[in-house]
Automatic annotation (TrEMBL):
It catalyses: orotidine 5'-phosphate + H(+) = UMP + CO2. CDD domains: OMP_decarboxylase_like. Keywords: Decarboxylase, Lyase, Pyrimidine biosynthesis. It comes from the Bacteria. It is an enzyme of class 4 (lyase). The gene is pyrF. Pathway: Pyrimidine metabolism; UMP biosynthesis via de novo pathway; UMP from orotate: step 2/2. This is Orotidine 5'-phosphate decarboxylase. Belongs to the OMP decarboxylase family. Type 2 subfamily. The keyword RNA-binding does not apply. One of its GO terms (biological process) is 'de novo' UMP biosynthetic process. Residues 17-268 form the Orotidine 5'-phosphate decarboxylase domain.
Length: 286
């Protein structure tokens, strides 16, 4: 099964568009684990076990492991997810971007060392910096397009005078990803939930691509507006229903740290349940 098939299967099985982001910060762990970086695996595995039937994907953020010399715990966590939740695809959030020869090493890291199903990438260095990942047939690659942070405006909202139609940079990225950059059919785009109008624009430019949408929860993005903008059932001219590419709506801190007590995993499940249901209801209304 390729990454897109995995997403579709997980969405159907768990009736979910929610991605739980695994951004473990020992300073925010519950009292019995607090400030202990050797407990990163234990914390994340408990979250995975509590939410695996509620998600379309998991998204471990590599910096939260590397910063604590916890790469071995990330490997252990990947193995745990494979074993206990094989139906849930794993997006390794690494936001890599480098020249081709170095990108080849990053691709080995993401897909062979960690066994991720997809990775996040910066497209800033151009197509040859993305191509090494696309050699891994069946693996997904999400290009940063219109990110959720305020500084995303600095470059992504600039107009490209030399490109026909003078698109904004994020619009150009969306077109390339839907078009000739999509060499293996496995590209997706990252668009922040904090910018629903831009999600709508990206969806118009890239109708069939999966959109990874972080920014609900701690960053205050609106789940309902996100679904309205990015997810819709379309009718083709012949009347047949066509679904746009999937959306994968990520929430990390709001779920991970729903409780600072010993009930953190139960509280994470309750928060994930609530968020999944908000997203489901929004789909029904869309
Ligand atoms: O690529 C990402 O996942 C990403 C892109 C983006 O535009 N904004 C964004 O917040 N993210 C990531 O999504 C997660 C959001 O975390 P919360 O704000 O805690 O839900 C973090 O891991 C971010 O690194």
């Amino acid at each position: 099964m390729n990454f897109l098939d995995q997403l579709g299967a997980a969405e159907r099985q768990n009736q979910s568009l929610l991605c739980v982001g695994l951004d473990p910060d020992p300073a925010r762990f519950p009292a019995h684990l607090k400030n202990d970086a050797s407990k990163i695996y234990d914390f994340c595995a408990a979250i995975v076990d509590a939410t695996a039937d509620l998600v379309i994907a998991f998204k471990p953020q590599i910096a939260y492991f590397a910063a604590h010399r916890a790469e071995a715990q990330l490997e252990q966590l990947m193995a745990h997810m494979r074993r206990t939740a094989p139906q849930v695809p794993i997006i390794l959030d690494a936001k890599r971007g480098d020249i081709g020869s170095t990108a080849e090493q990053y691709a080995i890291e993401a897909f062979e060392r960690y066994g991720a199903d997809a990775v996040t990438l910066s497209p800033f260095m151009g197509l040859d910096s993305v191509q090494p990942y696309l050699k891994y047939h069946g693996k997904g690659a999400f290009l940063l397009c219109r990110t959720s942070n305020p500084g995303g405006d600095d470059f992504q909202n600039q107009r490209l005078a030399s490109v026909p139609g003078q698109p904004l940079l994020y619009e150009h990225i969306a077109r390339l990803a839907q078009g000739h950059w999509n060499i293996n059919g496995q590209l997706g785009l990252v668009v922040g939930a904090t910018y629903p109008a831009e999600i709508e624009r990206v969806r118009a430019l890239a109708p069939s691509l999966p959109l990874l949408i972080p920014g609900v929860g701690a960053q205050g993005g609106d789940a309902l507006a996100t679904v309205k903008a990015g997810w819709r059932n379309q009718r083709a001219a012949d009347g047949t229903a066509q679904t746009t590419g999937p959306i994968i709506v990520n929430s990390s801190r709001a779920i991970l740290y729903a409780s600072a007590g010993g009930d953190f995993a139960t509280a994470a499940r309750a928060e994930a349940f609530k968020t999944r249901d908000v997203l489901r209801a929004a789909c029904q209304a869309a």
